């Protein structure tokens, strides 16, 4: 092939199975040049070539796992635009950054819960988590077992190299008994997890284990896992010549692979309690679980058939939603909202976290906006300063944190001292009038309400936060009152009392606005225009 010829891959009948007709890449030997090989390589359309070369050490098994994973996606015929690869922290956690699919590199141990949320919002996506034993089984272990328990719709590929390799080779929850690591120089004394047994016990629908040497079997197993409804788990035993292998007398990656070849045996149906791994012992590989079980989404649809909510569906177009609010009239048309930052701050035990959660639900589920809530507990569960930050927008929220709130709701003195600054210019300040002593500059611009006094009059201090929410809704209009009522109705406990408290705060807020000769925020272009007359 000369330089003038156009390279057309589609004209070549290419199959990347092991039985190639001409050569390893299915190309006649006289045309086997670099351009052809690059064009025909099975990973080409799945990897971000601009991110290469990768950071993995020579002899590491992660690259082999990626190769089998890509081949499996080709076998299954997945739509590249409908695949999302999620990973955590560690060597294997870098996989998502190299994939030419949607990908998320999450915080340590949080790949699984991130993927669960993503799957609930976007059930059309194929979710694949590719991460290491340290990320998935150590700090992420609690999330992993509960995802298997729920039978969440996702495929987890766990690359197990028996240590935290990226951070220097410390021992982890899968480190072999007696194995040497950076933190166990005389040998590990803790029993390791038997991952296939753990995943079966938790309820996974598909469980398999292979080594980084068993690439064809691994490829076919991943293809099966990708097509399996529910939670599928594939463990891949991988060499780590830089850290784990060297410390345990494997002179190089080839020596570890030779060990895999000599000590690997296929599973013959023995109890999974007997397939645990020992240092230099047998490695039992195979498919251990392949069963049908109702998935998390299938059960969810039994109780919430309309899940996920349709972002284009307004409450005004939903008669049943209007009936649930008890109003009988569609809510007023929503004003455009670019980004609104809200902070609710108080003491532990005042229901600050619940208030933020209800506000976020009202905005996202019932008012059909984008919303993010970030709770932050104080140092004590009762007392101390705590807060919930909420961001509400008509546009996707790229940065979820509140840095300069447009609306600041304060329910406790320590919270006021801690969170009163910084805030946006013209910030709407709302305070509990008996619990917060405002500074001189805030006293004339703040809206105040005796929420605690009224909660006591109603016979239950626990509705304190509902009074505050009702007042805030009326003063700011950041969500519709119908949306707040629907969110409160789903609490399940003290519903009528909570609704009554919300209505009392809401009506008081409406009266305050009217007496101040101001309109509701829904008709105002900026929150900075909303402040009491003095």
Which terms summarize this structure?
single chain; 534 residues; alpha/beta; Rossmann fold; Pyruvate-ferredoxin Oxidoreductase, domain 3; six-stranded mixed β-sheet; 19 helices; disordered N terminus; disordered C terminus
List the helices and strands and how they pair.
Elements (H helix, E strand, L loop, with lengths): L33 H7 L21 H15 L6 E5 L7 H4 L3 E4 L5 H11 L4 E7 H7 L1 H10 L3 E7 L2 E2 L5 E2 L23 H8 L3 E6 L3 H13 L3 E7 L3 H7 L5 H11 E3 L16 E8 L5 H8 L15 H7 L14 E9 L3 H15 L3 E7 L6 E11 L13 E4 L2 H7 L8 E5 L7 H4 L3 E3 L1 H7 L6 H13 L4 H9 L5 H21 L19
Parallel strand pairs: 1-2, 1-3, 3-4, 4-8, 7-8, 9-10, 11-14, 14-15, 15-16
Antiparallel strand pairs: 5-6, 7-10, 11-13, 12-13
Helix pairs in contact: 2-8, 5-6, 6-7, 12-18, 13-18, 16-17, 17-19, 18-19
Short account of what is shown:
The chain is an alpha/beta fold and 534 residues long.
